[in-house]
Write a structure and sequence with these properties.
Blueprint (H helix, E strand, L loop, with lengths): L4 H13 L37 H6 L8 H24 L6 H23 L4 H29 L3 H6 L4 E10 L3 H4 L5 E10 L3 H23 L5 H30 L3 H22 L16 H25 L4 H5 L8 H30 L5 H4 L7
Antiparallel strand pairs: 1-2
């Protein structure tokens, strides 16, 4: 069926609504009606980059004024700084022996970089939005895993660690007890039962990994898997699942604060927790754009404040774990010599399993729902931009 003149006229009218990409300030004039609706931020009216453009356009958007510019750089800059911190610590600290510190830094780098990549490329289409959002979810989950493991194995009190680690494998065997030669003929063989109890400190790694995989599955399913779902409800589910994981990861610190009080490392832990809590409140409240829609489209929106606070949370978490690692009479010096403390190999294996599960689950979601999430009812997707490749 050949397109009619009215169809051609409608296509031309739609394309006229899109600003010229060669204009350096073109995103500032592009409103929410010309982009996929899943990429629209609540109460943010303008500042959207163009959809359905070549990949190089979104790389250039790193330097174009838009409502995503600060979202990108408020996590890209901290991510690069955390990489610098990793190399700096490696010059003075054995990061293999003190693996809770290296795990905290690597997980912080992961969450920052995944977020920066998501905000750079998610606006291309609905399908790309789903893909990059799941990468962002993985970064959040991986940071939760790294932070929880570091808090439990590197920052908790010894009696808390032992009380939450009462898991045993018992092996029973009968062993013939040797006797003297002169008694061998007259004495019957004597046997004694030997029971080997082996506490497995890495058992909690499986619990942490299961918790993180559940959170990732919940986030992906609420974002991609639900065909007709209320945005407020799915947003609540994602926050509740992630928040539950973070609360679980902070239980060792709550117990430590209650039993041992404040020290320098604990002050950093508290600052990190306050930053994280405030970030969640700002994210959920949509402050200030909720009451001033269109005013804070480019600078000052809640998601940018959320990024700054979450980056500060990661930074102070690194400083807190560093203090616990370096103090000769503090928690890591006690926990590291426990016979049931997991090695770096155990932690690395759990992290690899988490990565494999996340990749498999994400690809399955895209395979099962890819056709549906690729259909957008907005004008920009009904009339594809001619420069899309």
């Amino acid at each position: 069926m050949k397109p009619t003149n009215s169809d051609d006229e409608k296509n031309n009218n739609v394309l006229k609504q899109l600003p010229d990409e060669n204009d350096f300030l073109h995103a500032l004039h592009n409103d929410h009606s010309t982009v996929p609706q899943c990429t629209v931020a609540k109460y943010v009216v303008k500042g959207y980059v163009l959809p359905h453009m070549p990949w190089r356009y979104y790389v250039k958007s790193l330097f174009l004024p838009s409502n995503e510019l600060l979202n990108i750089w408020t996590h890209l800059i901290p991510g690069l700084y955390f990489i610098k911190m990793l190399f700096r610590y490696n010059e003075t600290i054995d990061l293999v022996e003190n693996w809770p510190l290296s795990l905290t830094i690597i997980s912080s780098i992961t969450v920052m970089m995944c977020s920066a990549l998501m905000h750079t490329f998610h606006s291309r289409s609905m399908y790309d939005h789903a893909c990059w959002m799941m990468l962002d979810f993985f970064g959040i989950v991986f940071y939760a895993f790294g932070s929880t493991v570091a808090h439990f194995y590197g920052c908790s009190e010894l009696h808390y660690y032992q009380s939450t680690n009462k898991n045993y494998f018992s092996v029973s065997t009968k062993h013939q007890r040797p006797c003297l030669l002169d008694d061998a003929a007259s004495s019957p063989p004597r046997f004694e039962q030997i029971i080997f109890n082996c506490r497995i400190g890495w058992w909690n790694l499986l619990i942490f990994m299961f918790n993180c995989t559940s959170v990732f599955a919940c986030c992906c399913n609420t974002k991609v898997g639900q065909k007709n779902s209320d945005e407020h409800f799915t947003r609540f589910l994602r926050i509740a699942s992630v928040g539950g994981g973070y609360i679980y990861g902070h239980l060792p610190l709550m117990h430590r604060l209650y039993t041992s009080g404040l020290d320098e490392a604990m002050v950093y832990h508290i600052i990190s927790t306050v930053c994280l809590t405030t970030a969640v409140v700002v994210y959920l409240s949509d402050f200030p754009q909720r009451w001033f829609s269109g005013t804070f489209d480019i600078i000052g929106q809640s998601h940018q404040l959320f990024h700054v606070l979450s980056a500060l949370c990661c930074y102070f978490d690194i400083l807190a774990v560093e203090q616990d690692m370096l103090a000769s009479d503090k928690h890591w010096s006690v926990l590291s010599v426990q016979p049931d403390t997991p090695s770096l190999l155990h932690v690395f294996t759990a992290a690899i399993l988490l990565i494999i599960f996340s990749f498999k689950f994400a690809t399955r979601c895209l395979r099962n729902h890819g056709q549906r999430i690729g259909v957008c009812p907005c004008l920009c997707c009904k009339h594809t931009h001619p420069k899309m490749k």
